[in-house]
Amino acid sequence: MTPLHFCSRAARSKLSWLALLAIVPFVGCNHDEDDDDHGDGTTPTVRATAPADQVTDVAINTQIAVAFSEAMFAPSINPATFTLTDGVTPVTGAVDYADAGTTAIFTPVGALAASTPYTATLTTAIKDASGNKLASYSWTFTTGTTADAVAPTVVSSIPAHLDTGVATNAAVTVAFSEPMDPSTVGATSFVVTGPGVTPVTGAVELDFANNSATFTPSSDLAVSTLFTGTITTDATDLAGNALAADHQITFTTGTTPSAGPAPVLLQTAGNYGILAKSGISTTGVTAITGDLGVSPAASTAITGFALVLDGSGQFATSSLVTGEIFASDYAPPTPSVLTTAVLDMQAAYTDAAGRTSPDVTNLGAGDIGGLTLVPGLYKWGTGVSIPTTVTLSGGANDVWIFQIAGNLTVADAVAVALTGGAQPRNIFWQVAGQATLGTTCDFSGILLCQTLIAADSGAVLTGRALSQTAVTLIGTTLTTP
Predict the structure, then answer these.
(1) How many CB atoms within 10 Å of residue 38?
(2) For residue 344, which of 22, 251, 269, 357 is within the disulfide window of CB 3.0 to 4.6 Å?
(3) Which of the four pLDDT bands, split at 50, 70 and 90, describes residue 97?
(4) Distance between CA atoms of 237 and 419, rounded to whole angstroms?
């Protein structure tokens, strides 16, 4: 087999994934786009907002924030161009910038009214740094009855706490439990030190739209060295609540840099070997190592596992599963935990699907059987089939992301083979259609599937099956990496 070669190193750009709290890119509410653009000719857009469009039960002490697709011209964003109304009544507030000119925040002078719908509006007078106008934009949300007094938390990170052999060219990314105030997450509240207390020189970038922040070192980290990342209590959410305590992440570098794109941050979805929205079923002799979760479907949508509900009512067990099984109708806090995990799963899918500048496009017209693939971002506008074994060749920190617009089909008795130390945890299969693993196939990687994941008799999966519909198994062995 002939390796496919191209230049690909770990991206030091911020990760892209959608936020918890249902922050999503907007569709609709956009109109009156001005075609008379200037400068670079690229029309700025709105990436995300907090609160999100149509969200209810919003805290009455929240700020209103919007993330743009690029740096904006600060003077064009002010209380006349970024407004908030209660029906037709304007809300008095201040408008500020943060996040290097990509995020604007509207701060009301007082608490919002309880149980009231609000509309936030951005006008066409808002421009980017090149003079290109934003299309007029509006979204709505409804307040609840209480203020937000809950401290935000750090829910996951890359590298993970206590990771070893971390790439020397790694950035440090943390994911928060909710949108953060961009003005509070920066060089003084997110620091990296090592060896010991020696500060690492670098820059902090908050990806407000995706509840994450990334510290990018100015140069490669020292080899075989212990580092500590600290997010301090100076970091606050949009209601002004600070982290309850400083959060620290320690990790040890290896001896080499990584190749390929930045990995996809799964956040709490990474706590599950199988996570699905509508159901998980099995027949035959299935063996799962890892936790299972289904939401918003109830436990009746998990079939074939002979569930035994724990005395706490929060999870079930099964002789087929080395781990715990969770469903939306189990006792608290399981329902809310699963809701967050499903949102994280959707965010991870969107992140993987949204990566740009692929290294290779439409490789093999969708047939990658027999190829050896080096780390990188691969994109297909069609489905992908693996009729014969495909080999992924790379180091332990290297990353592969496969963007597949159609189905993924792995033939019977075929393997996704790993060489050179490549790890299943760093392989991401983003599949818009259905993923089918053939009989006795040996598959590696994280499946992020918009529809069904189906594994036939005797299939072996080293990775995770994260489906926005269902997962069906027939005598399948799944082991989380």
Answers:
(1) 11
(2) 269
(3) confident
(4) 43
**Alpha-carbon gap, residue 432 to 451, rounded angstroms:** 7
**Amino acid at position 4, single letter:** L
pLDDT at 3 over 60: no
Listed residue (49, 8, 11, 10) closest to 27, CA to CA: 49
Look up tokens 């290097």; give the residue: 100
For the stretch 374-419, pLDDT in tens is 999 999 999 999 999 999 999 999 999 999 999 999 999 999 999 9
Residue 252 DSSP SS3: strand
Instruction: Give me the phi and psi of 188, to 5 degrees please.
Output: -95, -20
285 has a pLDDT exceeding 60: yes
Residue type, 272: Y
Find where tokens 């949009």 sit: 238
Please state the pTM of the whole predicted model.
Answer: 0.82
Helix H or strand E encompassing 307: none
CB atoms within 10 A of CB 54: 11
SS3 content of the chain, % helix, strand, coil (to 5): 10, 40, 50
How many other C-beta atoms lie within 10 A of the C-beta of residue 162? 9
DSSP state of 242: B
pLDDT at residue 473 tops 50? yes
Question: What phi, psi does 363 have (nearest 5°)?
Answer: -60, 130
Give the tokens for residue 103.
């995020």
- Please tell me the distance from the alpha carbon of residue 238 to that of residue 454, in angstroms, as a whole number: 41
Closest CA relative to residue 185, chosen from 105, 259, 122, 253: 105
Can you tell me the distance from the alpha carbon of 236 to that of 183, in angstroms, rounded to the nearest whole number?
9
The string of DSSP letters for 331-385 reads STTHHHHHHHHHHHHHHHHHHHHH--S-SEESGGGGB-TT-EE-SEEEEESS-EE
Domains of the chain: 32-143 (2.60.40.1220), 154-253 (2.60.40.1220), 267-479 (no CATH)
Interval 185-234: pLDDT, tens: 999 999 999 999 999 999 998 887 778 999 999 999 999 999 999 999 99
- All residues at 6 or more sequence positions from 75 whose CB lies less than 8 Å from its CB, including other chains: none
Phi first, then psi, for residue 306 (nearest 5°) are 50, 65
